[in-house]
Prior knowledge:
The chain is built from 13 helices and 14 strands. By secondary structure, the chain is an alpha/beta fold. The strands form four sheets. Strands 7-8-9-10-11-12-13 form a seven-stranded parallel sheet. A three-stranded antiparallel sheet has the order 1-4-5. The chain has a two-stranded antiparallel sheet with strand order 2-3.
Amino acid sequence: MRIVDVRATTVTMPLEAPLRHSNGAHWGRFVRTVVEVEADNGLIGLGEMGGGGQSAEAAVTGLKPYLLGHDPARTEALRWMLANPTASLYNNRTQLLAAIEFACLDLQGRELGVPVHALLGGKVRSHVPFASYLFFRHPAEDGTGEIRTAEQLVAHARELVDQHGFSVHKLKGGVFPPDYERECFRALAEAFPGHRVRFDPNGAFSVEEAIRFARGIEDLDNDYLEDPTWGLNGMRRVREKTPIPLATNTVVVNFEQLAANVRDPAVDVILLDTTFWGGIRPCIKAAGVCETFQLGVAVHSSGELGIQLATMLHLGAVVPNLSFAADAHYHHLRDDIIAGGKLPYADGAIAVPDAPGLGVELDRDKLAEYAELFRELGSYPYDRDPARPDWYPLLPNTDWADPS
């Protein structure tokens, strides 16, 4: 095969309600860019990346001079063509590389008639378990979906358990004062005896506040405490003061940081993101390092639609040391751009696709519908809260939202 075209389409996908986080909010929708890589045999491989708009589409199509005529099976060469580590000091293309890698792996699988997991060593599990990913939420435009109180949080989690079968629960914090969020987190854990929990304030706490928070939840059945503070040194100081394992998707997101963490441990569980690490293959390499040094591994979510979810499923299928349920924003979506609609959960897990390539197909009508919605609504500032337009956080943060 040889690549003959590269296309990008930005879409907006509505959410059940705006999701709040330590830096601001997802304003009731995700913005994602769908990438299509076409080969000379007529096959099209699919990729996806976060963000979007004219800049993302231009960045993807700007890669055509690099990609036209390239054999999509040469995925290792892609890394050096698009994201050489020294060149990337000037043109950071890690997420672009990831989207192209997804599409090239998809093309290879389609050409050979095998699923991507077969190209990556073969699956060791046929279903990937997921945690419920819980957020404090602003109400949607129709007034529904707000999550502000412990009662609302527990009620929403119970709906998800009944609907999808989750037995692991992750709460995204860093929005309200730490003592308030600890009360909500404890209420969540106590509402589901026998289930496991994890908390993530996105690095918003000071080291001292993070230690205090950890001591207040040490009796719960914690998987881990994710990014309670910012930076490897901060995480290391917290780790010295709590028996709860620490996890990250912010301070160990490349191999240099992974090496530093092996030499001087600050984090126990590495959350591998197929976008942040530059593709599925780098995540598998990183998982191998973690296996060697006995670090925990989980699959991170950066706000996926069905194409990237498929990459997460193929990653989860082939990594033997996947010791925790994966994260996914997926259940917050109102729809998807893949044929057949959203992939279903069963008993808190999603089946790994076995169709050729990534195992998902574009629904062209949905792609057009949500591309048009993007053109109508445009982007939104991820690092702003619509309820506090003049607010922005410091690290560590002390200016919390008022839960009342």
